[in-house]
Design brief:
Elements (H helix, E strand, L loop, with lengths): L2 E9 L5 H20 L3 E6 L6 E8 L2 H5 L5 H14 L3 E9 L7
Antiparallel strand pairs: 1-3, 1-4, 2-3
Helix pairs in contact: 1-3
């Protein structure tokens, strides 16, 4: 089944949300999808904490998602993220394997 690489980012300065949103939309999400060779990529803002942003990258299987960890692609994207946002945004990453799906 599919697997997902998930990035949770929390903005320390809510006044920068529009800048972060625009940058992620125009640059980071498309660059990451391409660099990771992800099947799909999407993102959204938390409905319970307006300072939290999630990005999701879908892969065919767990092995494909795990290849992101420690990869040159991830290192390059992290370096660019840090260059642009520095310590203004904290991040965590997770990999989740789908184990069950129920279609409508």
């Amino acid at each position: 089944m599919a697997a997902y690489f998930i990035v949770r980012a929390q903005l320390g300065d809510a006044t920068r949300k529009d800048d972060f949103d625009r940058w992620y939309q125009d640059e980071h999400l498309p660059d990451a999808k391409t660099a990771f060779h992800a099947k799909r990529a999407w993102r959204g803002w938390s409905a319970t904490d307006a300072s939290v942003h999630y990005a999701f990258y879908e892969f065919e299987d767990l092995a494909s998602a795990r290849r992101i960890q420690g990869s040159d692609a991830l290192k390059g994207l992290v370096a660019e993220f840090d260059r642009v946002w520095g310590d203004k945004v904290t991040r965590s990453r997770d990999i989740v394997e789908a184990i069950q799906a129920i279609d409508a």
